Amino acid sequence: RRHKLYREELNLTSPAALLPLRPEASWLQFHLGITRDGLYPRSSPAVNRLLRDMQDSTTISADYSQDEKALLGACDCSQIVKPSGVHLKLVLRFQDFGKAMFKPMRQKREEETPEDFFYFVDFQRHNAEIAAFHLDRILDFRRVPPTVGRLINVTKEILEVTKNEVLQSVFFISPASNVCFFAKCPYMCKTEYAVCGNPHLLEGSLSAFLPSLNLAPRLSIPNPWIRSYSFDGKEEWEVNPLYCDTVREIYPYSNGNRLLNIVDMAIFDFLIGNMDRHHYEMFTKFGDDGFLLHLDNARGFGRHSHDETSILAPLSQCCIIKRTTLLRLQLLAEPEYRLSDVMRESLLQDRLAPILTEPHLLALDRRLQLILRAVRKCIDTYGEAKVVANDTTQPQAPASARVKLST
């Protein structure tokens, strides 16, 4: 009722006029900059403008993500590990058809994930999404969509702009006079799992949306090193040290870059401590050798005191790594380019800084040494020629390899 009266008071009942798409819009320039080498070039002014726009642009619409909507309607819920309000996320829309995924703060930076938590019931952390983007860029992977931190006014930028009556209905005022809201889903969607402003402002991460699936189709593919999403039982790779031999016999892991890209992804996930990589996505346009998108990193950076070496199984079992990846890791192990120092400096650019606590930054250095040690062990066993794949002489992708967008 309050929402309806508010809109009537501001004469917002009539639909807004359609706006033309400006070619110089940062959202569009980001999409046009996607190539078979990554989501954006190494030095991309469009990405820097996009990051600023996500921090400053006015929110014109808010809605549940497709995941939450699926939970409310017809869906194969067996494919959803843990539908709950604990993992609430929203889609925020901006001018120039901009769209970003908002994940609210669930866990304070200094809190570690409890030891007894399974990886599939862990919190989703907004600061992990932000830090993952910066780390991915430092590693020169460029496979995580641009992500920034932002303080959102949940009343003005969500409640008063959403047209979703279900989302409107889950807002309430807490006993502390803070504005809160929660998700609608089959279970665990109660006020005790709500997120609350202070009284209206709420920290969160904003991740830029990729081009529409109609314009740039993507495939979602099960990770060969997927974990068991149950409280007992293990997957074959966890009990068979020769599991990679089986994977190598299966197309497309039998040739090309796919297996090397899986190892890249495992290295990235090990550094952030993410055990929840059950699928990966690829743009179909770039074929089987295209890069893997590193999406949904909110379960990273949960425990700085523990290094989950099983995440490195693709590297330790297959004993193969790209030369460019190895050279970058070796550089970031040098004292003058120490990974923790580079990350600390990069994260200071975000308005919600500090993004990571000091123990999490130092954990990156420790885990980097474990990666290099695993590579050295492979080289000692099989020789450098078999372990280090030379990808430094690959030609630049032709202009025709860019994602084509039509209006």
From TrEMBL:
Family: Belongs to the FAM20 family.
Residues annotated as binding Mn(2+): D296
Active site positions, chain numbering: D276
Residues passing through the membrane, by range: none
Species classification: Eukaryota, Metazoa, Chordata, Craniata, Vertebrata
Primary location group: Golgi
UniProt entry keywords in alphabetical sequence: ATP-binding, Disulfide bond, Glycoprotein, Golgi apparatus, Kinase, Manganese, Metal-binding, Nucleotide-binding, Transferase
Residues bound to ATP: K103, S207, A208, F209, L210, E281, D296
Alphabetized GO MF terms: ATP binding; kinase activity; metal ion binding; protein serine/threonine kinase activator activity
Cofactor: Mn(2+)
Pfam (any one): Fam20C
Matching InterPro entries: FAM20, FAM20_C
UniProt gene name: Fam20a
Record's GO cellular component terms: Golgi apparatus
Positions of the FAM20 C-terminal domain: 171-388
Name of the protein in question: FA20A Pseudokinase
Localization annotation: Golgi apparatus
